[in-house]
Design brief:
Elements lengths: L6 H12 L9 H9 L8 H18 L9 H10 L4 H15 L10 E2 L2 E2 H20 L2 H27 L4 H23 L8 H7 L12 H14 L30 H9 L5 H17 L5 H12 L13 H4 L5 H7 L3 H17 L1
Antiparallel strand pairs: 1-2
């Protein structure tokens, strides 16, 4: 098995992006996993399971933060390929159940109606385990994993269909569409990567490209979610890599970024947070302005800047001195100037109109 990152380095990476977990009483069981982790070699099945548990805990803790830990290949592939004993496999599968049972809202600001991108992470991990169970002929494990995957897909489909049926606002329905598109993409990428020798063609077809009309077993609600995400939301939820630079944003759960483009409230939180000083807020403004110029049609950064402007005495002008010279003139004119004149409710009404028009097509 590829050993990959050591536990000690992985735990340090969690501390780097989510140190606030160590001060959160509700996170004590999670933190205990990190505090007990040692750098033992994966010499047997039990050690592999322990390593998987730490990696899943790290993934849960950081995947919705500004700097996620990079353990995807291990939790979706390498660990499962290294397992071949049925009893050990069952223990490893239980680690997924443990991770999936944790409350995503404790470590993510991107949870809507109980659905989050974390659910897609666990779908993908279970898909990796399923591919290995098929290869090993572990029928009981295969059935257990299929049951969990199917139940999650049904839950997400019901949630999205309900939002459409009751005419939920764009902020709810489009957030769900984005999450579903992400989750289905994660699942599809893993099952499509199963070695052909694994077999399981029926399951590969059942789970691949569910949100695409050309998918072998596509589901209409998922296809609609995918279309809405592509038309209205994909541009609004890129990875915001520039926000990795202002390290002060990592100090608090309250500063985690929600789903775009509705960043007004987040911008207000940044402006008022006691976790940040004015220089650090200036760093955030700099990152947002840079993001805007790298993707001028994206609304989220503009809404964050509008929120900061409203909640700051003197508005964005108060941060001009901390911006690089090349950005100072640009920070209060053009589309940024236009955005800060638009109240959140007016922006939301405009986006609602776009959403309703897309639904009608």
């Amino acid at each position: 098995m590829r050993v990959g990152i050591s536990n000690s380095v992985l735990v340090e990476q969690v501390r780097n992006t989510a140190a606030w977990l160590w001060a959160a009483p509700h996170a004590a069981p999670l933190v205990a996993i990190f505090d007990r982790a040692t750098d033992e070699p994966p010499s047997d099945g039990a050690a592999l399971v322990r390593a998987l548990r730490v990696r899943l805990a790290a993934h849960y803790a950081t995947v919705a933060t500004f700097v996620p830990t990079d353990v995807d290949a291990h939790i979706r592939h390498h660990t499962w390929v290294a397992l071949d004993e049925p009893d050990v496999f069952t223990e490893a599968r239980a680690c997924i159940d443990e991770a999936a049972a944790r409350d995503a809202s404790a470590v993510s600001a991107r949870v809507t109606a109980g659905i989050s991108g974390h659910d897609g992470e666990w779908l993908s991990v279970r898909a990796g385990a399923l591919g290995r169970a098929l290869a090993l002929g572990l029928h009981h494990e295969t059935a257990a994993l299929v049951e969990r995957i199917d139940a999650e897909l049904d839950r997400e489909e019901r949630c999205f269909a309900d939002a459409l049926a009751r005419g939920a606002p764009a902020k709810t329905t489009l957030a769900l569409a984005t999450i579903l598109a992400h989750n289905l993409g994660d699942l599809s990428r893993v099952v499509e990567a199963w070695p052909k020798a694994v077999g399981g063609q029926e399951l590969r077809e059942r789970y691949a490209r569910l949100g695409h009309a050309d998918g072998p077993r596509h589901r209409p609600s998922f296809v609609r979610a995918g279309a809405l995400n592509k038309e209205l939301m994909a541009l609004e939820n890129h990875r915001f890599l520039a926000l990795r630079k202002p390290r002060a944003l990592r100090r608090s759960r309250a500063l985690l970024l929600p789903l775009g483009p509705w960043f007004d409230a987040w911008g207000e939180t940044v402006a008022r947070s006691g976790e940040l000083d004015d220089a650090e807020r200036g760093d955030v403004v700099t990152a947002l302005v840079e993001l805007h110029f790298s993707s001028p049609l994206q609304n989220g950064c503009l809404r964050a800047l509008a929120g900061i402007h409203r909640a700051t005495r003197g508005g964005l002008s108060a941060y001009l001195a901390s911006l690089p010279a090349r950005l100072r003139k640009e920070a209060t004119r053009g589309r940024i100037r236009d955005a800060i004149d638009v109240l959140p409710e007016h922006f939301e009404a405009r986006f609602e109109k776009r959403f309703r028009a897309a639904l009608a097509r």
